[in-house]
Design goal:
By secondary structure, the chain is an alpha/beta fold. The protein has two domains: about 210 residues, Alanine racemase (TIM Barrel, Alpha-Beta Barrel); about 130 residues, Beta Barrel (Lyase, Ornithine Decarboxylase, Chain A, domain 1), CATH 2.40.37.10. It is built from 14 helices and 21 strands. A hairpin with a 2-residue loop joins strand 16 and strand 17. The chain binds pyridoxal-5'-phosphate (PLP).
Protein backbone atom coordinates (compact mmCIF):
# COMPACT_ATOMS: atom_id res chain seq x y z
CA UNK A 1 0.00 0.00 0.00
CA UNK A 2 2.64 2.47 1.09
CA UNK A 3 4.76 1.65 -1.95
CA UNK A 4 2.03 2.42 -4.45
CA UNK A 5 1.14 5.74 -2.93
CA UNK A 6 3.66 7.91 -4.64
CA UNK A 7 2.84 6.48 -8.01
CA UNK A 8 -0.62 7.86 -8.83
CA UNK A 9 -3.18 8.51 -6.11
CA UNK A 10 -6.43 10.34 -5.44
CA UNK A 11 -6.68 12.64 -2.45
CA UNK A 12 -10.24 12.84 -1.18
CA UNK A 13 -10.92 15.95 0.86
CA UNK A 14 -13.69 15.03 3.31
CA UNK A 15 -13.67 18.60 4.63
CA UNK A 16 -14.66 19.78 1.14
CA UNK A 17 -17.41 17.17 1.06
CA UNK A 18 -18.69 18.37 4.44
CA UNK A 19 -18.59 21.97 3.22
CA UNK A 20 -20.51 21.04 0.07
CA UNK A 21 -23.13 19.07 1.98
CA UNK A 22 -23.65 21.83 4.55
CA UNK A 23 -23.85 24.50 1.85
CA UNK A 24 -26.44 22.51 -0.10
CA UNK A 25 -28.37 21.68 3.05
CA UNK A 26 -28.68 25.38 3.85
CA UNK A 27 -29.71 26.07 0.29
CA UNK A 28 -32.61 23.60 0.23
CA UNK A 29 -33.81 24.42 3.74
CA UNK A 30 -34.90 22.33 6.69
CA UNK A 31 -38.18 21.17 5.25
CA UNK A 32 -36.62 19.36 2.32
CA UNK A 33 -34.96 16.00 2.81
CA UNK A 34 -31.55 15.29 1.32
CA UNK A 35 -30.69 12.19 -0.68
CA UNK A 36 -27.02 11.90 -1.60
CA UNK A 37 -26.33 10.01 -4.81
CA UNK A 38 -23.38 7.68 -4.13
CA UNK A 39 -23.69 5.32 -7.09
CA UNK A 40 -20.58 4.25 -9.03
CA UNK A 41 -18.45 4.24 -5.86
CA UNK A 42 -19.62 7.78 -5.13
CA UNK A 43 -18.54 8.96 -8.59
CA UNK A 44 -15.11 7.44 -7.94
CA UNK A 45 -14.59 9.01 -4.52
CA UNK A 46 -15.30 5.89 -2.44
CA UNK A 47 -18.94 5.14 -1.59
CA UNK A 48 -18.24 3.83 1.91
CA UNK A 49 -16.24 6.82 3.08
CA UNK A 50 -18.57 9.34 1.43
CA UNK A 51 -21.65 7.61 2.84
CA UNK A 52 -20.16 7.45 6.34
CA UNK A 53 -19.68 11.18 6.33
CA UNK A 54 -23.14 11.85 4.92
CA UNK A 55 -24.61 9.59 7.58
CA UNK A 56 -22.69 11.46 10.27
CA UNK A 57 -23.95 14.76 8.85
CA UNK A 58 -27.50 13.40 9.02
CA UNK A 59 -28.37 13.19 5.37
CA UNK A 60 -31.75 11.52 4.97
CA UNK A 61 -31.25 9.02 2.18
CA UNK A 62 -28.61 7.58 -0.15
CA UNK A 63 -29.02 6.24 -3.67
CA UNK A 64 -27.00 3.67 -5.58
CA UNK A 65 -27.37 1.81 -8.88
CA UNK A 66 -27.40 -1.81 -7.88
CA UNK A 67 -27.89 -4.20 -5.01
CA UNK A 68 -24.14 -4.88 -4.90
CA UNK A 69 -23.50 -1.20 -4.31
CA UNK A 70 -26.22 -1.13 -1.66
CA UNK A 71 -24.82 -4.21 0.10
CA UNK A 72 -21.34 -2.72 0.16
CA UNK A 73 -22.80 0.14 2.20
CA UNK A 74 -24.85 -2.12 4.49
CA UNK A 75 -21.79 -4.33 5.14
CA UNK A 76 -19.83 -1.23 6.12
CA UNK A 77 -22.09 0.19 8.75
CA UNK A 78 -24.37 2.41 6.69
CA UNK A 79 -27.83 2.33 8.25
CA UNK A 80 -29.36 5.26 6.34
CA UNK A 81 -32.28 4.46 4.05
CA UNK A 82 -30.97 3.32 0.65
CA UNK A 83 -32.65 3.51 -2.73
CA UNK A 84 -31.59 1.48 -5.75
CA UNK A 85 -32.17 3.62 -8.83
CA UNK A 86 -31.52 0.86 -11.35
CA UNK A 87 -32.33 -2.72 -12.18
CA UNK A 88 -32.54 -5.48 -9.58
CA UNK A 89 -33.17 -9.07 -10.67
CA UNK A 90 -36.24 -10.62 -9.08
CA UNK A 91 -34.23 -13.26 -7.17
CA UNK A 92 -32.74 -10.50 -5.05
CA UNK A 93 -36.00 -9.15 -3.60
CA UNK A 94 -35.60 -11.15 -0.38
CA UNK A 95 -32.24 -9.53 0.24
CA UNK A 96 -33.66 -6.08 -0.46
CA UNK A 97 -36.30 -6.63 2.19
CA UNK A 98 -33.88 -8.20 4.66
CA UNK A 99 -31.47 -5.28 4.41
CA UNK A 100 -34.15 -2.57 4.27
CA UNK A 101 -33.19 -1.39 0.79
CA UNK A 102 -35.79 0.50 -1.24
CA UNK A 103 -36.14 -0.25 -4.93
CA UNK A 104 -37.17 1.91 -7.86
CA UNK A 105 -40.15 0.44 -9.70
CA UNK A 106 -39.83 1.31 -13.33
CA UNK A 107 -42.59 -0.50 -15.21
CA UNK A 108 -45.58 -2.80 -14.84
CA UNK A 109 -43.59 -5.99 -15.42
CA UNK A 110 -41.01 -5.18 -12.72
CA UNK A 111 -43.76 -4.13 -10.29
CA UNK A 112 -45.42 -7.52 -10.68
CA UNK A 113 -42.10 -9.37 -10.25
CA UNK A 114 -41.20 -7.45 -7.12
CA UNK A 115 -44.67 -7.94 -5.68
CA UNK A 116 -44.70 -11.70 -6.34
CA UNK A 117 -41.26 -12.15 -4.78
CA UNK A 118 -42.10 -9.99 -1.75
CA UNK A 119 -45.25 -12.01 -1.14
CA UNK A 120 -43.32 -15.26 -1.56
CA UNK A 121 -40.80 -14.05 1.06
CA UNK A 122 -43.60 -12.95 3.34
CA UNK A 123 -42.17 -9.45 3.53
CA UNK A 124 -42.81 -5.95 2.32
CA UNK A 125 -40.57 -4.18 -0.18
CA UNK A 126 -40.34 -0.41 0.01
CA UNK A 127 -40.51 1.07 -3.47
CA UNK A 128 -40.23 4.43 -5.19
CA UNK A 129 -42.20 4.65 -8.41
CA UNK A 130 -40.24 6.06 -11.31
CA UNK A 131 -42.11 8.25 -13.77
CA UNK A 132 -40.77 8.86 -17.26
CA UNK A 133 -41.63 12.50 -17.94
CA UNK A 134 -39.25 12.97 -20.84
CA UNK A 135 -35.91 11.34 -20.08
CA UNK A 136 -37.05 8.29 -22.08
CA UNK A 137 -35.07 5.84 -20.02
CA UNK A 138 -36.59 4.05 -17.02
CA UNK A 139 -40.03 4.77 -15.66
CA UNK A 140 -43.75 4.65 -16.41
CA UNK A 141 -44.33 6.52 -19.63
CA UNK A 142 -46.84 9.28 -18.82
CA UNK A 143 -46.35 11.80 -21.60
CA UNK A 144 -49.21 12.91 -23.89
CA UNK A 145 -51.50 10.06 -24.89
CA UNK A 146 -49.78 7.77 -22.35
CA UNK A 147 -51.02 9.81 -19.38
CA UNK A 148 -54.03 7.67 -18.47
CA UNK A 149 -52.30 4.32 -18.91
CA UNK A 150 -49.26 5.61 -17.05
CA UNK A 151 -51.31 6.81 -14.09
CA UNK A 152 -53.31 3.57 -14.09
CA UNK A 153 -50.12 1.49 -14.15
CA UNK A 154 -48.68 3.42 -11.23
CA UNK A 155 -51.89 3.07 -9.19
CA UNK A 156 -51.90 -0.66 -9.91
CA UNK A 157 -48.30 -0.91 -8.67
CA UNK A 158 -49.10 1.02 -5.50
CA UNK A 159 -51.88 -1.44 -4.70
CA UNK A 160 -49.89 -4.62 -5.33
CA UNK A 161 -49.45 -6.85 -2.30
CA UNK A 162 -45.98 -6.90 -0.77
CA UNK A 163 -45.10 -3.41 -2.03
CA UNK A 164 -45.05 -0.27 0.06
CA UNK A 165 -45.01 2.80 -2.18
CA UNK A 166 -43.00 5.26 -0.13
CA UNK A 167 -41.90 7.51 -2.95
CA UNK A 168 -42.41 8.70 -6.50
CA UNK A 169 -39.72 10.29 -8.62
CA UNK A 170 -38.67 11.41 -12.06
CA UNK A 171 -35.41 12.39 -13.71
CA UNK A 172 -34.63 15.47 -15.80
CA UNK A 173 -32.86 15.35 -19.15
CA UNK A 174 -31.60 18.96 -19.37
CA UNK A 175 -32.17 20.59 -15.97
CA UNK A 176 -28.56 21.78 -16.01
CA UNK A 177 -28.96 23.72 -19.25
CA UNK A 178 -30.14 27.32 -19.29
CA UNK A 179 -31.06 27.93 -22.93
CA UNK A 180 -34.71 28.62 -23.62
CA UNK A 181 -35.62 25.29 -25.15
CA UNK A 182 -34.00 23.33 -22.29
CA UNK A 183 -35.76 25.49 -19.70
CA UNK A 184 -39.05 24.82 -21.49
CA UNK A 185 -38.34 21.10 -21.57
CA UNK A 186 -37.55 20.97 -17.85
CA UNK A 187 -40.66 22.99 -17.02
CA UNK A 188 -42.75 20.57 -19.10
CA UNK A 189 -41.22 17.58 -17.29
CA UNK A 190 -41.87 19.18 -13.89
CA UNK A 191 -45.46 20.09 -14.75
CA UNK A 192 -46.16 16.59 -16.03
CA UNK A 193 -44.60 15.06 -12.90
CA UNK A 194 -46.91 17.17 -10.71
CA UNK A 195 -49.96 16.20 -12.77
CA UNK A 196 -49.06 12.52 -12.52
CA UNK A 197 -48.61 12.74 -8.74
CA UNK A 198 -51.96 14.52 -8.35
CA UNK A 199 -53.82 12.03 -10.52
CA UNK A 200 -52.23 8.99 -8.86
CA UNK A 201 -52.79 10.25 -5.32
CA UNK A 202 -56.42 11.05 -6.12
CA UNK A 203 -57.09 7.67 -7.69
CA UNK A 204 -55.02 5.65 -5.18
CA UNK A 205 -56.40 7.58 -2.23
CA UNK A 206 -53.03 7.89 -0.50
CA UNK A 207 -50.13 10.31 -0.55
CA UNK A 208 -46.51 9.54 -1.32
CA UNK A 209 -44.23 10.36 1.60
CA UNK A 210 -41.33 11.27 -0.72
CA UNK A 211 -41.80 13.04 -4.04
CA UNK A 212 -38.44 13.87 -5.58
CA UNK A 213 -36.86 14.97 -8.84
CA UNK A 214 -34.10 17.53 -8.19
CA UNK A 215 -30.74 16.34 -9.50
CA UNK A 216 -27.73 18.69 -9.63
CA UNK A 217 -29.12 20.98 -12.35
CA UNK A 218 -32.48 21.32 -10.58
CA UNK A 219 -30.91 21.92 -7.17
CA UNK A 220 -28.98 24.77 -8.78
CA UNK A 221 -31.73 26.22 -10.98
CA UNK A 222 -35.19 24.93 -10.02
CA UNK A 223 -36.17 25.65 -6.47
CA UNK A 224 -39.77 24.73 -7.27
CA UNK A 225 -38.55 21.19 -8.01
CA UNK A 226 -37.23 20.50 -4.50
CA UNK A 227 -40.56 18.97 -3.32
CA UNK A 228 -40.01 16.55 -0.39
CA UNK A 229 -36.42 15.62 -1.14
CA UNK A 230 -33.53 16.67 -3.40
CA UNK A 231 -31.28 14.14 -5.10
CA UNK A 232 -27.95 15.65 -6.17
CA UNK A 233 -24.77 13.78 -7.03
CA UNK A 234 -22.22 15.91 -8.84
CA UNK A 235 -22.82 19.02 -6.71
CA UNK A 236 -21.89 17.11 -3.57
CA UNK A 237 -18.51 16.34 -5.08
CA UNK A 238 -18.04 19.97 -6.04
CA UNK A 239 -17.67 19.86 -9.84
CA UNK A 240 -19.22 21.78 -12.69
CA UNK A 241 -20.24 25.41 -13.25
CA UNK A 242 -22.99 25.31 -10.64
CA UNK A 243 -20.65 24.02 -7.96
CA UNK A 244 -18.36 26.94 -8.66
CA UNK A 245 -21.23 29.43 -8.55
CA UNK A 246 -22.50 28.01 -5.26
CA UNK A 247 -19.05 28.18 -3.68
CA UNK A 248 -18.62 24.40 -3.48
CA UNK A 249 -15.20 22.78 -3.48
CA UNK A 250 -13.82 19.91 -5.58
CA UNK A 251 -13.46 16.84 -3.37
CA UNK A 252 -10.91 14.89 -5.40
CA UNK A 253 -7.36 15.85 -6.28
CA UNK A 254 -5.73 13.30 -8.56
CA UNK A 255 -1.95 13.27 -8.37
CA UNK A 256 0.96 11.49 -9.91
CA UNK A 257 4.71 11.81 -9.79
CA UNK A 258 7.60 12.30 -12.21
CA UNK A 259 9.38 8.98 -12.67
CA UNK A 260 11.99 9.90 -15.31
CA UNK A 261 13.18 13.02 -17.10
CA UNK A 262 15.11 12.71 -20.34
CA UNK A 263 16.37 15.22 -22.90
CA UNK A 264 15.73 14.50 -26.57
CA UNK A 265 17.20 16.08 -29.68
CA UNK A 266 14.92 18.00 -32.04
CA UNK A 267 13.11 15.64 -34.43
CA UNK A 268 12.64 12.81 -31.91
CA UNK A 269 9.25 11.10 -32.04
CA UNK A 270 7.61 10.29 -28.73
CA UNK A 271 5.41 7.29 -27.78
CA UNK A 272 3.14 4.97 -29.79
CA UNK A 273 1.96 6.11 -33.18
CA UNK A 274 4.61 8.85 -33.34
CA UNK A 275 1.96 11.57 -33.10
CA UNK A 276 4.40 13.98 -31.45
CA UNK A 277 7.87 14.93 -32.63
CA UNK A 278 10.12 17.31 -30.71
CA UNK A 279 10.85 20.59 -32.47
CA UNK A 280 13.70 21.59 -30.15
CA UNK A 281 15.93 20.04 -27.52
CA UNK A 282 13.19 18.79 -25.23
CA UNK A 283 13.16 17.77 -21.62
CA UNK A 284 10.45 15.12 -21.31
CA UNK A 285 9.05 13.73 -18.08
CA UNK A 286 7.49 10.27 -17.86
CA UNK A 287 4.52 9.92 -15.50
CA UNK A 288 3.20 6.60 -14.12
CA UNK A 289 -0.33 7.55 -15.15
CA UNK A 290 -2.02 6.07 -18.20
CA UNK A 291 -5.39 5.04 -19.52
CA UNK A 292 -5.53 2.05 -17.16
CA UNK A 293 -5.50 4.55 -14.31
CA UNK A 294 -8.34 6.48 -15.91
CA UNK A 295 -6.57 8.97 -18.17
CA UNK A 296 -8.69 9.23 -21.31
CA UNK A 297 -6.54 8.31 -24.28
CA UNK A 298 -8.40 10.79 -26.47
CA UNK A 299 -6.65 13.54 -24.48
CA UNK A 300 -3.30 12.55 -26.03
CA UNK A 301 -1.38 15.66 -27.13
CA UNK A 302 -4.34 17.82 -26.05
CA UNK A 303 -4.02 18.74 -22.40
CA UNK A 304 -1.70 19.99 -19.70
CA UNK A 305 -1.01 18.65 -16.24
CA UNK A 306 0.03 20.89 -13.36
CA UNK A 307 3.53 20.98 -11.88
CA UNK A 308 4.44 23.09 -8.84
CA UNK A 309 5.84 25.64 -11.29
CA UNK A 310 3.06 25.78 -13.85
CA UNK A 311 1.29 23.67 -16.47
CA UNK A 312 3.22 21.10 -18.49
CA UNK A 313 1.80 20.07 -21.89
CA UNK A 314 1.14 16.35 -22.28
CA UNK A 315 2.94 14.97 -25.36
CA UNK A 316 2.47 11.89 -27.51
CA UNK A 317 0.00 9.04 -27.16
CA UNK A 318 -1.16 8.28 -23.66
CA UNK A 319 -0.13 4.67 -22.93
CA UNK A 320 -1.79 2.09 -20.68
CA UNK A 321 0.40 2.82 -17.67
CA UNK A 322 2.33 5.97 -18.56
CA UNK A 323 2.28 9.27 -20.33
CA UNK A 324 4.80 11.99 -21.13
CA UNK A 325 4.86 15.69 -20.30
CA UNK A 326 7.05 18.43 -21.71
CA UNK A 327 9.20 19.98 -18.99
CA UNK A 328 11.49 22.02 -21.22
CA UNK A 329 10.10 25.32 -19.94
CA UNK A 330 9.90 24.06 -16.37
CA UNK A 331 13.53 23.24 -15.54
CA UNK A 332 12.83 23.36 -11.78
CA UNK A 333 10.75 20.15 -11.98
CA UNK A 334 12.67 17.13 -10.74
CA UNK A 335 12.24 13.36 -10.64
CA UNK A 336 9.91 12.52 -7.74
CA UNK A 337 7.99 15.79 -7.89
CA UNK A 338 4.23 15.65 -7.56
CA UNK A 339 2.03 16.48 -10.55
CA UNK A 340 -1.62 17.45 -10.20
CA UNK A 341 -3.70 15.74 -12.87
CA UNK A 342 -6.87 17.47 -11.72
CA UNK A 343 -7.93 19.27 -8.59
CA UNK A 344 -7.96 22.83 -7.33
CA UNK A 345 -5.12 23.98 -9.62
CA UNK A 346 -5.98 22.02 -12.77
CA UNK A 347 -9.73 21.82 -13.05
CA UNK A 348 -11.48 18.61 -13.97
CA UNK A 349 -13.98 20.77 -15.87
CA UNK A 350 -11.27 21.97 -18.27
CA UNK A 351 -9.86 18.47 -18.72
CA UNK A 352 -13.37 17.18 -19.39
CA UNK A 353 -14.01 19.97 -21.90
CA UNK A 354 -10.80 19.10 -23.77
CA UNK A 355 -11.88 15.45 -23.89
CA UNK A 356 -15.36 16.37 -25.13
CA UNK A 357 -16.93 14.91 -22.03
CA UNK A 358 -18.19 15.81 -18.55
CA UNK A 359 -16.47 15.78 -15.14
CA UNK A 360 -18.56 12.75 -14.11
CA UNK A 361 -16.74 10.57 -16.62
CA UNK A 362 -13.30 11.63 -15.44
CA UNK A 363 -13.87 10.99 -11.72
CA UNK A 364 -15.66 7.70 -12.44
CA UNK A 365 -12.77 6.65 -14.67
CA UNK A 366 -10.18 6.76 -11.86
CA UNK A 367 -9.49 3.05 -11.73
CA UNK A 368 -9.24 0.62 -8.85
CA UNK A 369 -5.44 0.49 -8.90
CA UNK A 370 -5.34 4.18 -7.92
CA UNK A 371 -5.29 4.37 -4.12
CA UNK A 372 -7.70 6.79 -2.46
CA UNK A 373 -6.22 8.77 0.41
CA UNK A 374 -8.77 10.42 2.70
CA UNK A 375 -8.18 13.71 4.49
CA UNK A 376 -10.22 15.07 7.35
CA UNK A 377 -9.49 18.24 9.34
CA UNK A 378 -6.58 18.56 6.96
CA UNK A 379 -5.02 15.28 8.11
CA UNK A 380 -4.77 11.92 6.44
CA UNK A 381 -7.24 9.56 8.11
CA UNK A 382 -7.46 6.57 5.78
CA UNK A 383 -5.93 4.97 2.70
CA UNK A 384 -7.70 2.52 0.53
CA UNK A 385 -6.51 0.45 -2.41
CA UNK A 386 -9.22 -1.55 -4.12
CA UNK A 387 -6.95 -4.41 -5.21
CA UNK A 388 -7.24 -7.84 -3.59
CA UNK A 389 -4.29 -8.99 -1.48
C1 LIG B 1 -27.22 9.92 -11.19
C2 LIG B 1 -28.59 10.33 -10.82
C3 LIG B 1 -28.81 11.49 -10.07
C4 LIG B 1 -27.72 12.45 -9.71
O1 LIG B 1 -27.36 13.20 -10.84
P1 LIG B 1 -26.39 14.46 -10.74
O2 LIG B 1 -26.43 15.07 -12.07
O3 LIG B 1 -25.04 13.92 -10.40
O4 LIG B 1 -26.92 15.32 -9.65
C5 LIG B 1 -30.10 11.76 -9.64
N1 LIG B 1 -31.12 10.95 -9.98
C6 LIG B 1 -30.96 9.84 -10.74
C7 LIG B 1 -32.13 9.01 -11.09
C8 LIG B 1 -29.68 9.50 -11.20
O5 LIG B 1 -29.52 8.42 -11.96
Amino acid sequence: MESTLKRTWAQIDLDALRHNYETLRRRVGENVKFLGVVKADAYGHGAVQVSRLLQELQADYLAVSSIDEAMELRQNGITLPLLILGHTPREQVGRLIEHRIAQAVTCRAKAVEYSEEAVRCGGELTVHIKVDTGMSRLGYLCDGRHFETGVQGICDACRLPGLKAEGIFTHFAVSDEEDESSVDYTRTQLTLFRRVIDAVERQWGQRFALRHCANTGAVALWEEAYMDMVRPGLLLYGYGDFAQKLGLQPVMTLKTTVSTIKTYDPGTSVSYGRIYTTDRATSMGVLPYGYADGFLRCLSNRCSLMTDYGPAPQRGRICMDMCMIDLTDLPQVDVGDEIEIFGKRNSVEELARLAGTIPYELTCAVSKRVPRVYFRNGEEVERELLLRF
